[in-house]
Amino acid sequence: MKKGKKFSFMSLSLAMTVLLAACGSGGSDASNNTGESGTTPDNEAPPAEVEELTPEEGAMLTIWDGGDQKGFVEQAAAAFEEKYGVKVSYTELGADKAMTQMVTDGPAGVGADIFAGVHDQIGQGVTAGVIMPNDWFEEDIRARNSELAVNALTYEDILYGYPKSVETTAVFYNKDLIDAVPANWDEIKEFAATFNDTKANKFAIMWDVGNGYSSYPFFGGYGAYVFGNDGTDPTDIGLNSEQGVEAAAFLQSLKELMPLKSSDINGDIRKSLFTSGKLAMNISGPWDVGSLKEGVTNLGVGVYPALPNGDPMKPFSGVKSYFVNAYTKYPNAAKLFADFITNAENQMKNFEMTGALPSNTEAAGSDAVKNDEIASAFLAQFENSIPMPSIPAMAQLWSPMEAALSDLWNNGKDPKAVMDNVVEQMKSNIQTGS
């Protein structure tokens, strides 16, 4: 595969050479300055075509990824070694921890050559200087993956990472209790009126209301936003906009469906109720597919219901990616493996082995994925999601938002005052860097 950017640069250089030659001849046709041999003026040879990327001699790679990815990574590593003669060893370190570890281990020369991460960590990695831009394979990566996924991995107009899978939240439902996810919240309320029994711990629907990630679909659906245009402006926080306050008020009103303290709702409680037939709809992500399939015989997944304003809910989403350590001794080999392990064939293998949802459009459009009811539902919801902002200021959202959700849900506080306080706290924390 040729490096798109480098090839474009060579083409530009050739064009400039021709242009300058034309100017030097008083604007005459450039062909007048080219001899019969076809060389450029002064008998200079034209620029050589860009070579293929090849591994460094003696290259050996290490990759960090989560325990659930071990089998997938090892089969890809074996295929890569057979093709390129480069051995890749696996070390267990999940995507949620690897970037933070790399900030320390990369400069010390002990970090993995390639590591898994989530797109919202890019700001942290770029600031620390530990991730290498995806330059050689950029054009191919952009062409073969979901635009939403590629944009999520683009930071300050530079592509970082090699997208491997996508994830977001959607609505699991027990088909023995409800036929499908209702189209809107009015229909959910109608169903709850016949199903809910608080004393028996029976509920129509549940999500982790006190968690900012889980409750964001309300805010995203109403049109509130975190950091301005495309999540890149830390000075523009729209959570206390008219839309943000409307979202907070509606979310607060749903306590009638789930009359519990936010601290009494978590993943384990939801899973227990759902698998025992006491919860009809359970909002979660693809990470719960395996365990919920074991506990619910007739499991379904649907997109979120529409809000009272008629618009669909928009959850946060994440793009899992491989990143190349900026301090690797073998950048060519590392780039080659990161591209290899995220191609269409390997994303399909990852889907088959672990259920990871492909970012690659060819893999996502395969019959195996399209005919999988659960995978296709999550991918449909992903296309109507908001990738988490990746700027460092994103770290300042979670604590203020958690406190706000507690005030809204548990204490019944005024939505406008609560959301104003969220924005005030976030701006203060961003300014002080706390």
UniProtKB/TrEMBL annotation:
It is found in: Cell membrane. Coiled coil: none annotated. The keyword Signal applies. Keywords: Cell membrane, Lipoprotein, Membrane, Signal, Sugar transport, Transport. Its main location: membrane. PROSITE patterns: PROKAR_LIPOPROTEIN. Residues 28-42 have a biased composition (Polar residues). Residues 1-21 form the signal peptide. It is a lipid-anchor. Gene3D superfamilies: Periplasmic binding protein-like II. It holds the Pfam family SBP_bac_8. InterPro entries: Maltose/Cyclodextrin-bd, SBP. Residues 28-52 are annotated as: Disordered. Belongs to the bacterial solute-binding protein 1 family. This is Maltodextrin-binding protein. It comes from Paenibacillus polygoni.
